[in-house]
């Protein structure tokens, strides 16, 4: 016999009730869309200039059974922690500064839990750009070599700057500082640097140009304000020399001097010329074009000018030489040259004192015999005196004067240049008196005027006087008293009288 066990309906219902009470559904997040700041952070985006500490989002979800839920944020191992969450309220706070240029997307694992069930979702948070970067020039420093004959308007270099921002904040335009003073222009979009139209470069005037370039972004929002950032850099433009300038003399004007004791072959002076193209200079060849008259020569290589005649053979006091300097260009047959004038003066040394000469040569004593009381203004023609200074110019200028009893004679001329005949003229006839002076002696003095040496010389002038009958006899006394004895014989001396 089989035994069958039967269950009552009340017991079945009781068992079913128990099973329904023990079931628990997982909590879930609300998905409120990309523009929401409330939900599961799906498609959430955040500007990189958001301040640290800002409440940026609220995690929001529910549990089907109505149980309280908690929230959590976790990250992959090694990731930077940018956010924190209030586990009960779901408030998400930024705790680390954002930088889109370093990290433009952040992966976060958001979790919601009812205590029994936990639901996690991996979400990507987009970091939005703010205009917080300045343009940066790349491949600096900028140094450009440009030949001086580069045509105007030619492009010579391309400047490039980048801005890590996006949108208008990442666009870059270019400008030059002090645009009116520059010889260059820049394309504001491409950054191509050019020589200004109508402008040429000149190595001889300016070998280096410093151009300041400004790179500016298009502007954008940063913490609510519109910001524009810029950067500057300097482009060094070195102008390369080309052969386009004739040589030029330096140290002009040129003056040289030849002295009377200068030896034949002595160097008088050196002229120096340089190729006007200083960057790639050619050597210089010198020659005298004219003015030398066979008296001077020039070293073709050094420019040294020498005298090739003895100074006493030089017939001019001043020589004007025309000197030519020519470039020696090994690559071209064309001759580029320039001229300079050289003035050479023949200079006398003051090495000769004034000297007196008689008819037979140098003489320092002159004599004359003459009658007393010659007429005033009469020239002493018996004296043949010449005075000479063999120097030249100011060195040969001297004065003449008589040194002796004053006011009797005067000398003509009183100032001499180089040479003169000396004339002595009577000034006081009465003083030329044989009865007072049988011999008159004077010193004839010649002394240089404008020289530091003040060279001088003297000559004696001796004048012997001859007597003339110019005096009446005169008794030695105006009257005489004589006493004669009465018996004096004839022929006796009565008195002595004297006459002169």
TrEMBL record:
SUPFAM superfamilies documented for this protein = Cadherin-like
Give the primary localization class.
membrane
- Membrane topology field: Single-pass membrane protein
* Leader sequence segment: 1-23
What domain of life does the native source organism fall in?
Eukaryota
Any keyword Signal? yes
Where located? Membrane
Question: Which InterPro entries has this protein been placed in?
Answer: Cadherin, Cadherin-like_dom, Cadherin-like_sf, Cadherin_CS
What GO annotations for molecular function exist for this entry? beta-catenin binding; cadherin binding; calcium ion binding
Q: Which GO terms describe its cellular component?
A: adherens junction; catenin complex
- What SMART domains is this protein classified in? CA
Q: Name one Pfam family in it.
A: Cadherin
Q: Name one GO biological process term.
A: cell morphogenesis
Which residues are in the Cadherin domain?
Answer: 44-137, 138-249, 250-356, 362-475
Q: Which UniProt keywords apply?
A: Calcium, Cell adhesion, Membrane, Receptor, Repeat, Signal, Transmembrane, Transmembrane helix
- The molecule here is called Cadherin-related family member 1
Recite the lineage of the species. Eukaryota, Metazoa, Chordata, Craniata, Vertebrata
């Amino acid at each position: 016999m089989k035994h069958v066990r039967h269950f009552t309906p009340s017991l079945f219902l009781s068992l079913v009730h128990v099973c329904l009470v023990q079931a628990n559904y997982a909590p879930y997040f609300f998905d409120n869309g990309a523009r929401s700041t409330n939900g599961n952070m799906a498609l959430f985006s955040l500007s990189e200039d958001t301040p640290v500490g800002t409440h940026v989002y609220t995690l929001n979800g529910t549990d089907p059974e109505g149980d309280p839920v908690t929230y959590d944020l976790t990250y992959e191992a090694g990731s930077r922690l940018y956010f924190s969450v209030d586990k009960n309220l779901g408030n998400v706070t930024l705790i680390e500064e954002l930088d889109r240029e370093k990290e433009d997307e952040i992966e976060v694992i958001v979790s919601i839990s009812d205590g029994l069930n936990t639901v996690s979702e991996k979400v990507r948070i987009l970091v939005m750009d703010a205009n917080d970067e300045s343009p940066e020039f790349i491949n600096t420093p900028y140094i450009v070599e440009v030949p001086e004959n580069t045509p105007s308007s030619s492009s010579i270099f391309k400047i490039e700057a980048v801005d890590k921002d996006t949108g208008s904040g990442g666009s870059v335009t270019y400008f030059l500082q002090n645009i009116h003073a520059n010889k260059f222009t820049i394309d504001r979009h491409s950054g191509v640097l050019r020589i200004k139209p109508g402008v040429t470069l000149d190595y001889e005037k300016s070998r280096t140009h410093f151009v300041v370039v400004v790179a500016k972004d298009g502007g954008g929002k940063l913490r609510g304000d519109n910001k524009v950032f810029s950067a500057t850099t300097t482009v060094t433009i070195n102008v390369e020399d080309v052969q386009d300038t004739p040589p030029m003399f330096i140290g002009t004007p040129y003056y040289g001097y030849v002295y009377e004791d200068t030896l034949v072959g002595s160097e008088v002076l050196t002229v120096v010329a340089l190729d006007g193209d200083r960057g790639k200079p050619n050597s210089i060849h010198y020659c005298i074009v004219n003015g030398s008259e066979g008296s001077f020569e020039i070293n073709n290589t050094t420019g040294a000018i020498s005298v090739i005649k003895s100074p006493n053979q030089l017939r001019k006091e001043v020589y004007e030489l025309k000197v030519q300097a020519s470039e020696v260009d090994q690559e071209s047959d064309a001759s580029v040259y320039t001229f300079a004038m050289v003035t050479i003066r023949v200079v006398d040394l003051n090495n000769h004192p004034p000297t007196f000469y008689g008819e037979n040569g140098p003489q320092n004593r002159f004599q004359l015999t003459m009658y007393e009381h010659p007429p005033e203004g009469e020239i002493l023609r018996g004296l043949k005196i010449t005075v000479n200074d063999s120097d030249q110019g100011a060195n040969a200028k001297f004065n003449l004067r008589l040194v002796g009893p004053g006011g009797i004679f005067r000398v003509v001329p009183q100032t001499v240049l180089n040479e003169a005949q000396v004339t002595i003229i009577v000034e006081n006839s009465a003083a030329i008196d044989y009865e007072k002076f049988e011999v008159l002696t004077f010193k004839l003095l010649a002394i240089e005027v404008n020289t530091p040496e003040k060279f001088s010389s003297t000559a004696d002038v001796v004048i012997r006087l001859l007597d003339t009958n110019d005096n009446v006899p005169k008794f030695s006394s105006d009257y005489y008293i004589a006493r004669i004895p009465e018996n004096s014989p004839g022929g006796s001396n009565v008195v002595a009288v004297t006459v002169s």
